[in-house]
User: Fold these one by one.
Assistant:
Number 1:
Amino acid sequence: MVRARGEEISKLAVAEVLAGHLRVSPRTPADAGMQPQRLKDTVSRGLSGDLLSRATLALFVDAFGISSGEADRLWGLWNGSAMIGVLAGSHAVPPEAEQDLAKVLGPRRHQTVSMHDHVYVDADGRLERTRTLQVIEAIVPEVSRFPFLYDTSALTLEIGQGCQGLSGELRQIGPGVFATEIVLSRTLAIGDTLTMEYWITYRLPGNLADPAEREYRRGVLGHLENYDMRIEFSPQKLPAQLWWSRWNGVAGEVTEQTPVTLDSQHAAHRFLRSVDRTVVGFRWVW
């Protein structure tokens, strides 16, 4: 690229990569002299999602050296697999809040490889607790702590495997939002992974008419792969209606929702291959 424009993808730069690959590994005799300008429309249609042929996707995979696992995921999406969910949004929190988070937490030291949220709603209809299993990977040397964000509805944080204790340090990031750190059971080198387990209990008032007490959300500030959410209701208090939903940020309105039915264990489940800068979860009415 000659000049970067923020997060905008340069179509000509992408076309240059594809053209260079075709000149080295031509599919037809004409490809040996391929120029990037001839591929700009193909790139534009592919990146916008307007038209992505099998041959074009294969070219992207080969030219950019996309790994076999990610290529399998792309082909699954291309074939319309219902088993793969990918969500992307513009933001999970307002830009000013994101800047505050960056100031308090500092540069990222890990990435999440997978995350599982198991949510429980009690017989009173209150959100009782969540159990989270999270696999993290160190992206810098000597990662010994994990930043943990919570709001004033959280009553207790209980740690399990992969966690040694809590730092005891408490920092307020914004109104009703705080941060602490979980001390890991071992210090991670670059590329090391660790499975963390923790439980959160809540102290919601119990106003079942309040929409805020009839939902569970997960906000993703950056990129998250392999995300699983399961919500289980007490058989003594089952929702009249339940939706899998997506919100326009933590303070925004619902932008998408899909009706969900409970299984024989009074639970519902969603798995997403990828989530980017958005808020997803379950909401219900009694």
Number 2:
Amino acid sequence: MTDHITRRDFVKGTFAAAVAGSAALTCGDPGATASSDSEATQGPRPVRSARVVVVRDEAALGTGHEVNVAVLDRMVADTIVRVTGQRTADAGWRALFKPTDIVGLVPTPHLNPTHPEVFSAVRRALVACGVPPENIRDAQGGIDKPRACTALIAMPGLKAHWLTGIGTVLKNYIVYSGRARDFHGGDSVNLGSIWLLPEVKGKTRLILVDALRPLCDKGPQPDPRYMCDYRGLIAGTDAVAVETVGLQIIMAKRKALRGEDWPLSPPPLSVAAADEKFGLGTSRMSEITIDRAGWAQDVLV
């Protein structure tokens, strides 16, 4: 019991520090380059740390890929307990959101979209912990959506992308930029700048990735050959760390399919840049602790 309490207290401490760090992000110049004079005078990148939770259940999907809602609800509850270090899921949600918050849920709308069952499960959990239904909104879309919210939950589907390499966490806010085309190809290195827009900065209190059925090759149309029943959720409070773990899973699955390394094209430049250029979190696996729970077969990370 003592070891359990000690671990829980540790998780709660790192969770609180991560939330405080997110809220304290300073807004940099989205147009700055990694080699700019201002960055050169800042000195070495600080050491960071993050926890990412991976919860899986073999029963989450049926034989026809249908979502088992009861199982999904349990997975969401377990995920929140692990992310926050609270004793119950209800306490975990209350540690993240107040009844007075306007909570924007930000799912993936295209190319392996977020399962509607995941969206509904989170909405139910928020209502159960005291957030009024009218305070919970679908915040995917134009910049007016996050502007109207006090808190955001990034809820992307795990996927590769033909324009940005990885198309999960960082790209999930691309429409907020008002100029999505400017963040494709080599310019995807600047996706992290969108998270520093005044309407967005510091509002994302949870990243919850739908990894029930990831897409490990890019599109533009989802190819069933490159989708797998991973049956998982990936979550944390550090957007870059969650993206990094998702990318590791995608790359491991690609290697398993080909029997050799199968690089993404274009390369996922945005992940390291979100860390080293925009300071949003850590992209270094050495700084990430992964809390795995549930079904262990082919966990890939």
